[in-house]
Design goal:
mainly beta, disordered N terminus
Length: 495
């Protein structure tokens, strides 16, 4: 019995099997194998023992069974079944039969340029099936070839517009996949992404769209121009690049290259243009260009403001600095920049910073428009008037020549308020409209507790409140047309 067990162990070591049908197990599948064993006489003492047989010593109380496999211990101390169980263990440790391929799928670019090459790959089903294949290409005598590893090459002078590649299983010639490859007569020499004729490539470029059109029809999408230079001056038959987006939650790109906000909020997305025809950059890598798109909250309006000490009337040749206030119902920052333009540059011009220079007088109207630079279409405007210069001012019957002198006009408390219509540019004196001068002035009393001063609709009103004769009360009149004209008159208040 001991001899038989030792021989059984030898069979395990050298990988012998026995005739007949047994159930064998691999890691994933249960398969039926027909197994054979070389001619061995189990009863013979002539089988040469190997080193493992000789290593069995006196201390091996179980006649070497532990050295075969722990599974044999579970069978107890049976005699007739020892060999059978040992051979089952042999089959458990044997190699599983290879899984047959049922399907092949080729992957790779659908476009390759003349003069370029592309490496294609193939996958198989089931996943653990063999993928040993034979690669072939149609029209191999017309400038196209494919090697045994699936690398397709297109000759520079190839006139084909397409070819068909195939991968056929080496194990089963009936398992095959085919793949159509379009051929462009040229490859991309250079690529740029433009808007309004200017490059927008790079993370520092301001390519803004808005998640909502808001109240002003803000821009929620745009389609950049892709400028391609071909390798030989010929036209591209098929588009040689693909477009991808790294943040499709807020931005999407359609098949025509239109970039649109999804309406899911604000943020940044990178749009990548990648050559698919084998075109390379100067470093030998696949040619790519990337633009950064920012999705923002739109501006809903712009207000133009005039300085407090000025009015909409501006003397010919003078300037005024406007300021723009950006309004937003969606949380856009109010510091956004605007662009300015004039409705009639012959009357007035406006600089990039909002400085208006009046070119005409005589009540010439002009409109200045400010538009948010972010593309939201939000804008605002203000009407200005070019006017003639004020040369002098008369306060009612108080002539202009009394201004800026030591001459004093006495006002009595008992006479009450004094209304003085303003006259401009004596001796041809008239009102502001008639003289086409600025009607807006600023008046001030240096002693308002004794003599108040106010102005409205071309009339200066003086209101005596307390007797004041110890010194003069100065009434100042300033014209708000940018000319800087200021006139002063002396008054005293009597009983």
């Amino acid at each position: 019995m001991k001899k038989r067990v030792l021989l059984g162990m030898m069979v395990i070591i050298i990988g012998f099997t026995i005739p007949g049908q047994v159930r064998a197990y691999d890691e994933e599948n249960v398969i039926d194998n027909e197994i054979e064993i070389s001619s061995v006489d189990y009863e013979s003492d002539s089988v040469e023992e190997n080193e493992e047989t000789e290593d069995i010593g006196e201390n091996d109380k179980n006649d070497g069974i532990d050295d075969i496999d722990p599974l044999m211990e579970e069978q107890g101390e049976s005699t007739a079944n020892d060999e059978e169980e040992a051979f089952k263990v042999v089959q458990t440790k044997g190699a599983a039969k290879a899984v047959a391929v049922s399907e092949l799928t080729i992957s790779g670019s659908t476009l390759v340029a003349a003069g370029k090459s592309y490496q294609y790959t193939v996958s198989a089903l089931p996943k653990n099936a063999s993928i040993a294949v034979v690669w072939e290409v149609s029209s191999s005598d017309q400038g196209v070839s494919i090697d045994s590893k699936g690398k397709l090459k297109i000759a520079k002078d190839c006139s084909l517009t397409s070819c068909e590649i195939s991968a056929t299983s080496k194990e089963n010639g009936e398992i095959k996949d085919t793949y159509t490859v379009n051929i462009n007569p040229c490859y991309i020499k250079s690529m740029d992404i433009l808007e309004d004729g200017k490059s927008i490539v790079g993370s520092t470029k301001k390519n803004v769209i808005f998640w909502t059109s808001g109240t002003t029809g803000a821009r929620t999408s745009f389609t950049p121009d892709v400028k391609l230079t071909s390798s030989n001056g010929r036209e591209f038959i098929k588009r040689p690049y693909k477009i991808t987006c790294d943040n499709e939650n807020i931005v999407k790109v359609d098949e025509n290259g239109k970039i649109s906000a999804t309406g899911n909020g604000t943020g940044t997305a990178k749009i990548k243009y990648t050559a698919i025809d084998g075109s390379k950059n100067s470093e030998g890598n696949t040619l790519t260009k990337t633009i950064t798109v920012r999705v923002e909250n739109p501006v809903t309006g712009v207000s133009l403001l005039i300085p407090e000490d000025r009015s909409k009337y501006i003397v010919k040749g003078k300037t005024i600095k406007l300021s723009a206030l950006v309004n937003s119902a969606y949380g856009a920052p109010m510091t956004k920049e605007v662009t300015y333009r004039s409705s009639n540059p012959a009357v007035a011009t406006v600089s990039e910073s909002g400085v208006v220079t009046m070119k005409a007088g005589s009540y010439s109207p002009v409109t200045i428009i400010a538009t948010a630079k972010d593309g939201s279409n939000a804008s605002g405007s203000i009407d200005l008037v070019g006017c003639n210069a004020v040369k002098n001012i008369s306060l009612g019957d108080i002539p202009y020549h009394k201004a800026d002198t030591s001459k004093v006009t006495i006002i009595s408390l008992k006479d009450g308020k004094l209304e003085l219509p303003l006259k401009y540019n004596d001796p041809e004196g008239g009102d502001a409209e008639k003289m086409r001068v600025c009607p807006d002035i600023q008046v001030k009393s240096d002693t308002p507790k004794c003599l108040e001063a106010s102005y409205k609709d071309g009339v200066l009103t003086l209101n005596p409140l307390n007797k004041f004769e110890t010194k003069n009360i100065i009434i100042q009149v300033k014209v708000l047309d940018g000319s800087g004209l200021v006139k002063k008159w002396n008054f005293k208040v009597s009983e």
